[in-house]
Amino acid sequence: MERPAITRRAALGAGLALPFFPAARAQSAPVNLVLESEVVILDPHATTAAITRTFAYHVFDTLFSMDGKGMIRPQMVEAWESSADGLRWDFRLRPNLRFHDNTPVTARDVMASLDRWAPRDSLGRMLWAVKAELQAVDDRAFRLTLTRPFPMVLDVLGKPNAPLPVILPERLARIPVEQRIREPVGSGPFRFRQADWRPGNVMILERFEGYVPRDEPADFLAGGRRVHLPAIALRVMPDPATGATALIAGEVDYMQYLPFDLLPRLERARGVRLAAFGGIHQFQGNFRINHAAAPMDDPAIRRVLWRCADQAATMTAIGIPERFRAPSCPSFFLCDAPLDSRAGAEMMGFDPEEAKRMLQATNYRGQKLAFLTTAGGISQTAAQVMIQNMQRGGFDAEEQVMDWGTLLARRARREGWHIFAVYANGTDMFSPLTNFYVSNTCADYPGWDCDRDIERLLREFANAGDANERKRLAEEIQRLAARHVPSVMWGQFTIPAGIRDRLRDVPQAAYPMFWDARI
Which of 112, 277, 301, 418 has its CA at a distance of 20 to 30 angstroms from the CA of residue 248? Predict the structure, then answer.
């Protein structure tokens, strides 16, 4: 999911006003967590919000999931096979799967859930476009029949990108997505405790005793999710400085995103350790460009922006320590990731004098460019560095500051803006089919870029049955995207999490996950 700014504070807060379960006391008390934001939307089919995805992975389950190497592995599914012609896929659920209301998970639940989810998701729509029939064979078996082969069936059913293809009870899956479910009943390792939910304060997820984990060890989002904690309390704390104070004081056990300016104090704090990860667990920052608004409809002008983006200076300005950032990365699909590509890198690289020369050779005539930013966060800092460099190169760029909600509303219009700054999880960006700015070419998506060759290659990528062929196609898509410039990357980095020493065996990933964790 694209993420709004994380506010940075210069000083720690003065303390907590919320009632907390003391972290060092009763083993039956929930473990206190501070995640990126409050869980507001409980319906995992209804939003791309990352916090809803985190909630969903604990409360719901998926047919397949991604492991730490980016491979798709079975989760709710026990066995599957496809016909030689690739048109029939047969699946069988694991035995004894149950929802939190103690009803069994059946093939009918799967059918209703996938029919609800697929129209809301770009990959789901791609799969459903070739679906001939989805039918229940018996209570645990179901069959997907296609009109033509689609090799990425498992990749779609196990994708980690929101909205997630989680399985709901049929009665909830029949509720239109527009209405949103209000009763989050899943079959995942944790159960939502409705009676203890205090919006704006705390949400409690307790261990679901009826959950049956897979036999193998957990591996990122795949494998056996064994829960040892009795419950987790998701504390609402919008001010990260207050969260850092609580972490240092031992009043919370985990904080998902630590403020960069407070890292020195957090690293010195007794009983606190920092966790940071590489590869697909990093974030990628982007400047999204509005191709519908002149002069950014001119690819020659867009290409000048590559020479204005100084990734190293941007991350220094944000305050990201060197150990939490990747070297300047030219890959749309992340450096140090499976589809890492340097195709077109010769067009990139910060060079303000070259930017000035290139811009003078275009049809740019000094038009003012509206650069949208969100106040007080790392995206705004990234934008301010870029604006300064654009001005050095000869652009007339103007920062327009607003809150994230207003920015979302503004970017939905084709006119009135040219660029905005944002960042997203690497797991959302490392594939051509999920990268927001590559995959949405020729679609009704803010930015409205369209490259028919990229569109064709995306279809070929989805239909490629061989990993080497996908790698080749990703390389070609990267090369075309470098010329087309749907966005300009401003950096690849990690936001470290903070964990109290008493909380052990937390899965090593950028997604907050609390199966396997112990106290």
Answer: 277
Residue 89 parent element (H or E) = strand 88-93
Check: CB of residue 400 under 8 Å from CB of residue 370.
yes
Tokens of 38: 């409050």
Biggest CA pair distance of the chain: 70
**Would you call 186 helix, strand, or coil by DSSP?**
coil
| Sign of CA pseudo-dihedral 496, 502, 507, 508 | positive
Q: Given the DSSP bridges, would you call strands 31-34 and 254-255 parallel, antiparallel or unpaired?
A: parallel
CB atoms within 10 A of CB 195: 5
Which of 156, 1, 189, 185 shows the shortest CA–CA distance to 65?
Answer: 156
The C-alpha atoms of residue 18 and residue 237 are separated, in whole angstroms, by 9
When pLDDT is cut at 50, 70 and 90, the band that residue 202 belongs to is: very high
**Cα–Cα nearest to 19, from 271, 198, 241:** 198
Local structure of 136: helix, strand or coil: strand
Element (H, E) at 193: none
Please, which residues bridge with residue 487 across strands? 288
For residue 51 the two structure tokens come to 């916090």
**What distances in angstroms separate CA 205 from CA 104, 198, 227, 458, one per listed residue?**
21, 12, 12, 39
What is the per-residue pLDDT across 104-125, written as a single tens digit (0 to 9) for each?
999 999 999 999 999 988 889 9
Buried b / exposed e over 309-328, threshold 16 CB at 10 Å, is bbbebbbbebebbeebbbeb
